[in-house]
């Protein structure tokens, strides 16, 4: 195996792209002998700003998400999945590179992924997969310069509303942008279903990146009145304002509702938020139906993942830029076409970085050594154990908002680096993070080891 550079001709008119990557010897031999490529198709569906409790399978009885609940029942629901960095561009970069922000270089919004960091679309494209992208990109370059060979309409990122989004046609420039005439989730699903229903002479990787539940909280026609605001339960850790000093109330996410928070405003926003996700669930159902009708479902890995979380009133916060569970924890469902699940719910500590090696293992593509994620397939079938700890970054010195955290299966330690505040939670006894143990006997017993591990990680990660 060696480093190669090839040019792939896209299905639509665009410039050739170079995709350096270590090609699997297995694939090269298969192509040279004319063997049919029967490797599984792979579909990755991404939601945005998705509170981890906003799925029926999470135990939320107020929201209706039957298609995703059924997908979880047919596969594995990973109920402790986390993003390393709970903000837009960095969170996506961690998925696409399988690396932490300090490794891939995208630590804050606007930063580019390092040239040395791999992206899974490029690896699969060179290995013989057709690679499709549609939806919210919000990263450097364009999908067609980052390994995708075809796709639907795309949104670059930035300010928007879901009803009149400025979308770019596949492979074209910003001057061709057109205002969508339908709700964004519907547009991206229309393109995806059309692609699934087409003809496929080789396996495909499809990434659909929805914009919901990013604000503005407005559901599409027919869904806006499905949830009565006064019947929406408040989060169990609802607060009018955060219980710590380091909080920038002028971050855009935090300006969408009055501050301090009111119960009524949180309920009204959550009613629309739930309706947005019920509509998204219906659209996911359309894709799964098309896959089944095309008789592709029995040879397709389906992954549903949230890019990051959303607070929706928990601890007085609306957005995701927080080390509370609501910011860093997100939904993850995996349905493998042939593996038998060891359990329907897996509570191992997993990361959105793990999506990269999971895709590669399914596609029989060698995982680059620089990838820091771990394939989920061993957890899926019970052949390996999970992690003992995860580490997190939120870094915005411009707004004096700089936090680091470590989470184990039981405890979480948060460092607010601007104010010097520290928070320590026992997540077994206090899952909603209401009691800071820093001054408690239990906290004093476990804090030194957590601090040591966090500082060792920071020295290694931030020193790169």
Short description:
With 464 residues, the protein is an alpha/beta fold. The chain is built from eleven helices and 21 strands.
Please tell me about this protein's structure.
α6 runs parallel beside α7 (263-293). The radius of gyration is 21 Å and the shape is globular. It has helices at residues 25-32, 66-74, 88-97, 101-104, 120-126, 184-196, 263-293, 325-328, 355-363, 377-381, 441-461; strands at residues 3-4, 7-8, 17-18, 21-22, 41-47, 76-78, 81-82, 130-136, 150-155, 166-167, 178-179, 204-209, 300-306, 329-330, 332-335, 345-346, 350-351, 389-396, 401-408, 411-416, 422-426. With 464 residues, it is α/β, with parallel strands linked by helices. The protein has a single domain, classed as Alkaline Phosphatase, subunit A (3-Layer(aba) Sandwich). The longest helix is centred in the middle third of the chain and has 31 residues, at 263-293. The strands form six sheets. Strands 9-8-12-5-13-15-6-16 form an eight-stranded mixed beta sheet, sandwiched between helices. Strands 18-19-20-21 form a four-stranded antiparallel beta sheet, with helices on one face. It has a three-stranded mixed beta sheet with strand order 14-7-17.
The DSSP helix count reads 11
The structural domain count equals 1
Distance between the termini: 28 Å
Give the strand line-up of the largest sheet: 9-8-12-5-13-15-6-16
Fill in the CATH topology: Alkaline Phosphatase, subunit A
The CATH homologous superfamily corresponds to Alkaline Phosphatase, subunit A
Number of strands: 21
> Per the principal axes of the C-alpha atoms, what is the gross shape?
globular
The helical percent reads 25-40%
Q: How large, in whole angstroms, is the Cα Rg?
A: 21 Å
The major pleated sheet works out as: 8 strands, mixed
CATH architecture name: 3-Layer(aba) Sandwich
Broad structural category? alpha/beta
| Uncertain residue ranges | 1-34
What integer is the average pLDDT?
91
- By CATH reckoning, the class would read Alpha Beta
Strand content: 15-25%
């Amino acid at each position: 195996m060696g480093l190669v550079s090839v040019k792939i001709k896209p299905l639509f008119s665009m410039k050739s792209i170079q995709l350096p990557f270590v090609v699997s010897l297995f694939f090269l031999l298969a192509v040279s002998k004319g063997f049919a490529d029967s490797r599984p198709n792979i579909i990755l569906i991404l939601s945005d700003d998705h509170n981890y409790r906003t799925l029926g399978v999470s135990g939320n009885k107020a929201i209706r998400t039957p298609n995703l609940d059924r997908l979880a029942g047919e596969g594995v629901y990973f109920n402790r999945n986390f993003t390393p960095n709970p903000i837009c561009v960095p969170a996506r970069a961690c998925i696409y590179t399988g690396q932490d922000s300090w490794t891939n270089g995208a630590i804050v919004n606007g930063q580019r992924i390092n040239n040395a960091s791999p992206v899974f679309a490029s690896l699969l494209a060179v290995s013989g997969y057709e690679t499709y992208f549609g939806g919210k990109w919000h990263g450097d370059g364009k999908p067609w310069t980052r390994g995708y060979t075809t796709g639907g309409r795309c949104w670059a990122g930035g300010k928007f509303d879901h009803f009149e989004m400025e979308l770019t046609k596949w492979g074209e420039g910003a001057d061709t942008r057109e205002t969508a005439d339908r709700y964004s989730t519907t547009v991206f699903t229309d393109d995806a279903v059309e692609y699934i229903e087409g003809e496929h002479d080789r396996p495909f990787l499809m990434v659909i990146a929805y914009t919901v539940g990013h604000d503005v909280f407005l559901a599409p026609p027919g869904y806006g009145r499905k949830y009565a605001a006064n019947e929406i339960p408040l989060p169990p850790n609802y607060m009018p304002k955060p219980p710590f000093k380091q909080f920038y109330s002028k971050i855009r996410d935090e300006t969408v509702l009055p501050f301090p928070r009111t119960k009524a405003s949180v309920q009204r926003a959550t009613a629309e938020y739930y309706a947005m996700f019920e509509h998204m669930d219906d659209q996911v159902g359309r894709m799964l139906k098309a896959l089944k009708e095309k008789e592709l479902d029995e040879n397709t890995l389906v992954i549903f993942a949230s890019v990051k979380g959303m607070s929706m009133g928990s601890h007085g916060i609306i957005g995701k830029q927080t080390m509370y569970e609501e910011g860093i924890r997100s939904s993850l469902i995996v349905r493998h076409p042939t593996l038998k699940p060891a359990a329907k719910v897996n509570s191992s500590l997993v990361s959105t970085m793990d999506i990269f090696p999971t895709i590669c293992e399914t596609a029989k593509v060698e995982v680059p050594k620089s990838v820091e994620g771990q394939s989920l397939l061993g957890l899926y079938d019970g052949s390996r154990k999970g992690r003992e700890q995860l580490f997190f970054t939120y870094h915005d010195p411009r707004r004096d908002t700089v936090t680091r955290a470590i989470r184990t299966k039981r405890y979480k330690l948060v460092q607010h680096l601007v104010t010097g505040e520290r928070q320590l939670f026992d997540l077994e006894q206090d899952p909603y993070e209401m009691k800071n143990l820093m001054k408690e006997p239990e906290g004093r017993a476990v804090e030194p080891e957590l601090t040591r591990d966090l500082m060792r990680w920071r020295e290694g990660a931030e020193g790169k």
